[in-house]
Design goal:
The chain is an alpha/beta fold. It has 21 helices and 16 strands. Strands 8-9-13-12-11-10-14-15 form an 8-stranded mixed sheet. Bound molecules: FE2/S2 (inorganic) cluster (FES). FE2/S2 (inorganic) cluster is lined by residues 75, 106-107, 143-144, 181-182, 215-216, 220, 222.
């Protein structure tokens, strides 16, 4: 059923809406269980009338709004205004908006790491959607883990849902150079470590990197997930890129509120939008964006909630036929506001049209193809390249396998150094984050520019929470000599805003007995991205010997609460790091059609 077939519902009076056969249940939905449903509704209405609602208001379709504002979350600093705009849209379409709080997560305000809490936010959001009366829900998210958590929740909760993102921050300026979070955060910090800039300048740039509220201004995880949500069709067309402080952003929120009412009437659920074809489209766009490696984990988690399995090998073959076309940092030069001015995501989708499933349905009741065709077509833009002149000839992410990563690892090849893509070097091993902090800048550390830095125990269980520590800093003494990049390998993640020759998500992780845990200083490691190979050049007999002597005494510290749930349930990277209990049996594998064939 197409939600736009119900566009006339605005004209219905609430009396008509309460006629027999109506598709919404409003306040009668999900009553508290007292054993007398009429009494439950009577009591519910008595309480909510305490906030001044009339029977007229309470007879409307109810649209829940997940409000993720927090004083700790600058990426969501515009949420109060967005909630008001969504409410306006809901009311204009004849619904009753009700906002409710959920957990919110900001990357820099989540210890030990926001990824540890993503599944908690997903559980919170899912259960609050299930528990409270609402015919549809508008999910307002933005910062890296929030959109994945909300989409995981929406996929599981199964009621009509529409995503709204907070939008990217604007870029700033430091001494005449354009800057933005957080590729430039890392660039300036590396320059400071290498003594290229002094204390005064690093403090100065600290004031300039985040000039407005909103999500990071480059193609990091937040921007990537916003673009993927639009591609998946769970967000309105051309709504991924509008900056947080633009009026466009408020209009998108208003339109999303109105559309949520149409979705409620039509009963269109996320299952009807988030299909295997939609996920194939999203993976294609992830590659063409040069998007964040984290997005692969999140997309896997969202798809997993619907029984859809992301096939890493097929994804890698898709990567070989999908060029990076978007010239945004960290793979290119621009910022999100540039992509917005260039026509937003539809400009990229138009370029990828022959490679997409154009008949995938979206929340506005039209297909992806119809949305692309009706978007403004800007000819004179430089941010999205034609497929004949890409930023990078292949997709942004390559999948690696070998005896060091039997279940896979990934590298963001579009942001790596070409000269290190095939490299053999001596391992310099760090056993965890503490060990790394203690020794990385030790002047006595035995390390050369040709070595391979290995960081163990930062996987899903190891740290725990798979922190974004895979961007191992270049040892200070090498940075001071001008070394800008080295091959770095870990079972952790890295920020989508980071760049370098960095192998991530090595699976199984060290803490699960993966071979990464067996690497010792001086071992030779061979990386060959063109051959998708990552190998530890140590005899199997020797690895077996190490495996035996590695058997550590089990940690007897009792685990309680969320930590216990996390350690018992967390899955590996290739399974999206979701909780085992939240994933139904997987029945479909995507991408299914990965050959270099253009769709007609
Ligand atoms: Fe929130 Fe980057 S820290 S998007």
């Amino acid at each position: 059923m197409r939600p736009d077939q119900h566009n006339d519902s605005n004209e219905h009076s609430h009396d008509e809406a309460s006629d027999q056969g109506k598709t919404t249940q409003g306040m009668s939905n999900r009553l508290t269980n007292y054993g007398d449903s009429a009494f439950s509704l009577f009591l519910r209405k008595a309480f909510i009338k305490g906030m001044g609602y009339t029977d007229d208001a309470l007879s409307r379709p109810v649209i829940g709004i997940a409000n993720t504002y927090s004083g700790y979350n600058a990426c969501h600093g515009n949420v109060p205004g967005l909630v008001e705009s969504v409410k306006r849209g809901v009311m204009l379409a004849g619904g009753l908006p009700v906002d409710f709080p959920t957990i919110t997560l900001h990357e820099s305000f989540a210890h030990p790491t926001s990824m540890y809490l993503r599944n908690l936010m997903a559980l919170d959001t899912e259960e609050m959607i299930r528990a409270q009366p609402m015919d549809a829900v508008v999910l307002i998210g933005g910062c890296d883990k929030t959109v994945p958590a909300q989409l995981m929740a929406a996929a599981s909760a199964g009621i009509p849902a529409i995503q709204v993102v907070t939008g990217p921050m604007l870029s700033g300026s430091h001494r005449g150079t354009r800057v933005g979070a957080c590729t430039d955060c890392r660039r300036y910090w590396a320059a400071y470590r290498g003594k290229d800039i002094d204390d005064q300048e690093i403090n100065e740039v600290n004031d300039k990197l985040v000039p407005t509220v909103g999500t990071c201004s480059v193609m990091g995880t937040a921007s990537t997930m916003a673009c993927l949500a639009e591609t998946l069709g769970i967000m309105l067309p051309n709504s991924a890129t509008a900056p947080a402080v633009y009026a466009d952003r408020q209009r998108i929120a208003e339109q999303s509120g109105a559309q949520a009412v149409q979705l409620a009437h039509a009963g269109v659920t996320p299952q009807q939008i988030l299909t295997p074809e939609a996920f194939e489209n999203a993976l294609r766009v992830l590659l063409a964006l040069g998007g964040s490696t984290n997005a692969l984990i999140h997309t896997t988690a969202i798809a997993g909630r619907l029984g859809i399995d992301i096939d890493l090998a097929a994804f890698d073959r898709m990567s070989q036929e999908t060029p990076v076309l978007v010239d945004l940092k960290p793979s290119g030069e621009g910022y999100m506001e540039d992509l917005h001015r260039a026509g937003g995501l539809p400009t990229l989708l138009r370029e990828l049209k022959p490679l997409l499933h154009l008949d995938a349905m979206t929340v506005n009741g039209r297909t992806l193809g119809e949305n692309i065709d009706s978007a403004v077509h800007l000819i004179d833009q430089k941010i999205v390249r034609p497929r004949q002149a890409p930023i990078y000839a292949q997709g942004g992410i390559a999948v690696l396998r070998g005896n060091l990563a039997p279940a896979g690892a990934i590298i963001k090849q579009s942001a790596a150094s070409p000269e290190l893509m095939s490299h053999r070097g001596r391992a310099v091993v760090f056993h965890g984050l503490e060990d790394l902090a203690k020794r990385i800048d030790d002047p006595e550390l035995d390390v050369n520019a040709d070595d391979v830095l290995v960081l163990k125990n930062i996987g899903p269980k190891g740290a725990p929470g798979m922190p974004e520590a895979g961007y191992i800093p270049i040892p200070k003494k090498l940075a001071a000599q001008g070394v800008k990049d080295m091959v770095r390998i870990s079972d952790g993640r890295m920020s989508g805003t980071a760049a370098g020759t960095i192998v991530l998500h090595v699976s199984p992780e060290s803490a699960e007995g993966g071979p990464l845990g067996l690497v010792q200083d001086g071992d030779m490691i061979a990386l060959d991205v063109a051959r998708n190979a990552l190998n530890l050049e140590v005899e199997e007999l020797e690895l077996d010997r190490r495996r035996q002597s590695n058997q550590m005494a089990a940690d007897e510290t009792p685990l309680l609460g969320y930590r216990r749930l996390f350690m018992e349930q967390i899955l590996q990277a290739e399974e999206g790091c979701d909780f085992r209990a939240c994933r139904p049996e997987l029945s479909v594998r995507v991408p299914r059609q990965h050959e270099a064939q253009e769709r007609g």
